[in-house]
Design brief:
The complex is a heterodimer of chains A (110) and B (115).
Chain A lengths: L3 E3 L4 E4 L4 E7 L4 E9 L6 E6 L3 E5 L2 E6 L4 E6 L8 E9 L4 E3 L3 E6 L1
Parallel strand pairs in A: 2-11
Antiparallel strand pairs in A: 1-3, 3-8, 4-5, 4-9, 6-7, 7-8, 9-10, 9-11
Chain B lengths: L4 E3 L2 E4 L5 E6 L6 E8 L3 E9 L2 E5 L6 E5 L5 E5 L8 E8 L10 E2 L3 E5 L1
Parallel strand pairs in B: 2-11
Antiparallel strand pairs in B: 1-3, 3-8, 4-5, 4-9, 5-6, 7-8, 9-10, 9-11
The chains are: A mainly beta (110), B mainly beta (115).
């Protein structure tokens, strides 16, 4: 079993839709949670970073962490064609070991 | 601040050759990590360098090696290239200070194609 599981998609939604991206994990040592956005042929770009259970909002993006269920989500409201990218979840231990999901490919159709 | 930079951006090599990739971290960042990204495997950790010392290592063969210089710049070398080494190689840096909540920032990657 992988440390981090992420549905690869692909996910295709119409413009304006609410998008939900999810990851599950098995290691209780993960204390810090990130979402990266990666456009085609580019490096991953940090989108959201949170370290406690609950919600963190930044514009149209909301990151949600449920440590008891070992489940994290990223919600994108009012999705735009420019949101079309691969979204990677990432997790970090206190000892700075990073683990990544395989990424979910998202296409927002105008 | 300038972001993480990687050179070259694209490389084409043939089997058996060797290759060296370069990474310049964000100014002030002391830790550099390298990852291999392929469509099937996602991001796989290669190694991390801090203060010119390898701190962590992933599960890759000895053909993959790296080093870090006193200015925190890092190089990664792959010897005896195989077709399966074709991938996007990403470098990520973090400050490696006292804050445990810090995260890492990625460069644009070097896309390596082995023929």
């Amino acid at each position: 079993q992988k440390e981090v599981e992420q549905d690869p998609g692909p996910l295709s939604v119409p413009e304006g839709a609410i998008v939900s991206l999810n990851c599950t994990y098995s290691n209780s040592a993960f204390q810090y949670f990130m979402w990266y956005r990666q456009y085609s042929r580019k490096g991953p770009e940090l989108l959201m970073y949170t370290y406690s259970s609950g919600n963190k909002e930044d514009g149209r993006f909301t990151a949600q962490v449920d440590k008891s269920s070992k489940y994290i989500s990223l919600f994108i409201r009012d999705s735009q064609p420019s949101d079309s990218a691969t979204y990677l979840c990432a997790m970090k231990t206190v000892g700075n070991q990073f683990y990544f999901g395989t990424g979910t490919s998202l296409t927002v159709i105008p | 601040k300038a972001g993480v930079t990687q050179t070259p951006r694209y490389l084409i090599k043939t089997r058996g050759q060797q290759v060296t990739l370069s990474c310049s971290p964000i100014s002030g960042h002391r830790s550099v990590s390298w990852y291999q990204q392929t469509p099937g495997q996602g991001l796989q950790f290669l190694f991390e360098y801090f203060s010119e010392t390898q701190r962590n290592k992933g599960n890759f063969p000895g053909r993959f090696s790296g080093r870090q210089f006193s200015n925190s710049r890092s190089e990664m070398n792959v010897s005896t290239l195989e077709l399966g080494d074709s991938a996007l190689y990403l470098c990520a840096s973090r400050s490696a200070g006292l804050a445990v909540r810090e995260t890492q920032y990625f460069g644009p990657g070097t896309r390596l194609l082995v023929l």
